[in-house]
Amino acid sequence: MSLRSMPRRLNPRALRRPSLCHYVSQANPRLGLAWQSCRNVASTPTAEKVLFPGALNSEFTNNLEFLRPSTNKAISTFRVLNQYGQVIDQERGADTTDEEALELYKHMVCLNIMDLIMFEAQRQGRLSFYMVSTGEEGISVGSASALNPTDTVFCQYREAGVFMQRGFTLDQFMAQLFSNCEDSGRGRNMPIHFGSRELNIRTVSSTLATQLPHAAGAAYALKLKNQQNPDVEPRVAVTYFGEGAASEGDFHAALNIASTRQAPCIFICRNNGYAISTPTSDQYRGDGIASRGAGYGIDTLRVDGNDIFAVRTATKEARRLALSDGGKPVLIEMMAYRVGHHSTSDDSYAYRQKVEVEDWKRRDNPITRLRKWMEDRGIWNEDKERKLRSKLRKDVLGAFDRAEKKKKPKIRHAFDDVWENVTEEQRAHVEELKDILTRYPKEYDLSQYEGGIESLDELLQKKQ
Questions:
Q1: Pairing of strands 330-335, 265-271
Q2: Which terminus of the chain has fewer CB atoms gathered within 10 Å of its CB, N or C?
Q3: Where is the Dehydrogenase E1 component domain (predicted)?
């Protein structure tokens, strides 16, 4: 058959049938929103708006004018308290009780003290690695306080405050940092990689930004569960990341997935000014990370991260939005300044002036701002501050001392949790390791490991 004859075989009725997209949307309107509806009619001569499916509701124009972001005003930053701890909008208020504010303050101070002690411990060689949250305590503690305990959380590596606010104890922090026998991760992760099934917080991963698509996928699963179980309180997925992680491809993939699937996912960006040694001026030329949310059709807000009340208010509203209309993603860019070094492997004074850091520490930070607010209300003073810091320091040092004295996890955990039963190949590896440890006892000190070499026998006796 020639190519010319092919059109003659087309069924004319098929041309008059509604498109598949149109048919599906009519059969079940819940499958798509108005802005997602397919168009099966081309542009008409009198059309004033674009009818192309790739850009709906765009008006036609004969003016050749490029969109120039540099000419637009920067996205505004939401705040509740000013730099002096004073509420800006009295009608809105701080949206908290004195008891709540005191609890938030204690958690931020405790996190700050733990950071100072553990940083010094690493410098003494008693810890292999650590990352501080100095200057960003309000973001993690404040946002976590506004979430539901059942919401699932995917952290990056500077969200110890989220764990603390949700109930992670100092002993649990220290067990993971020292990788001792009480570490829930069984000593398999480097320090700062916390995780808690009980608190609905997924274990931190070293690979940058991988938590973002994980959160988007989890949010879509939660959306389906929320629809299938209307009598159960709905949940959202929340993920944290730095502005440096927003340069990874996973960031864009996650936002696009969450947007197109309308998944109830809250993306919280900690924009602290530096991606390790790279300042934001070398990371991007757009208006921060918030400007990217609009490009993906996501409700977006920029917040003063030094204002814990603004953080709480924004997170509460973001959660409400994320669960509205069947579910939708929300992006919050929380502005802060990374006062500490990126990690104990970094010397930030090699790429920024010390006076810049000291100025931020002195001029504005979340702990000082909340303290000013509490002092103005008469619920805090210098004496209470001194007693709190003294107590918290003793608590942190006590947990530190207990954790440092405990033994390392059992050697068998190097092989556990891979297969349900020990495979033949694993058994050979365990027997080989046991043989080496037995033949060279002076080379391998097993006294520091719980159970010693006998823990390998436990594994070998396990049924195949």
A1: parallel
A2: N
A3: 105-411
